[in-house]
Amino acid sequence: MKRFAVVLLSVLLVLLPGCTKPVTESGVQSTESGTVESTDASLAEKTDDSSAQAQSGHVEKTLSSGVKVDADVYVPESMQKSALAEMRGQGQLIDYEELKSLFCSGKTITEEGEEPWEMVTPGAMEAVGKYVSTQDGDYLQRICGNTFYYMTERDIQDIEDLTIYETGKNLDFASIEETDKTIRDIAEKLNIAVGKGVCYTIDTSSQPHYVFQYEILVNGMPLAMFDGGSYSGDAYVPGTYMTAVVDADGIRHYDVSYVLEELESGESKKVLTLDEALQAVDDKYNSVIMEGEYFIDDIQMAYTPVQTEETGIVRLIPVWYFQTTHQILLPDKSGTGEIMLPQDGYILINALDGTELLHENGDI
What we know:
The protein is mainly β.
């Protein structure tokens, strides 16, 4: 029961910030630590005027289908290329003994064991969850070999909207820069490559603290923080990132959704520009009868994993992500009026061939 409660709290913490928001820097070091892997020269070619870089910023327009676009565009620097390659990847094993050394060293262990775990995480390597509890109330668990979370007894997250705390304000116990370095040092010891991060300064709590989130990299390329899909079967693929919460007493929460590593890279291919990707979206909506109003309010680019029939093996595909809102008028409960009902969704366009990555997303 305790482990179930811990898992639930951890999941809530991960979900609160909203995984569809782009990672931007706010007081976090722009120089990535030694954990960042160098990009293979064969994976991406140099930037030119037709690359994604030219489309970074903000887009406001109405497509021929009537879909209204009013969105910030986030393209990671490493993906601002004229050509990229699809990769083949697998889970990256996180050293369990190193985890214990980093988070539980010098503490009295009260319980340690293993339990069966369904292999649903992208790149899952084993159907096992290993866990350890300490006398201080700390709990550490590694799941499926390539994901883990750590939390202390004081780890309570009650902030509903973290975005308003992206202020760049330093707390008394440590600066954002110092705390960022501490977190990155831990990632480096675990051989987890992280990219840019965002810091939220929670100074209204009875226990002031920082919440950091970081991109996770594969061969220098960021994995999607947003949810993904597959070409068939409506397979759900969650986004991934690293989260750390730090207060005056130290790290009180640290988790990684999942970590992947590259096995091989395919041939580099021309990347769709934003206009070309938007045309694919426009074609999609022009092919159906639309009711209500449709909006695109966030656009990002990243690599997303797609499950394969091989256990633990994924395709890593560069995609354009479009966050959508569908507003439709429906009868209210009284039956005498109407109510506007917004429905959120997303569209993923393969940035190499323009096809849509299908997923379970309700109505179009």
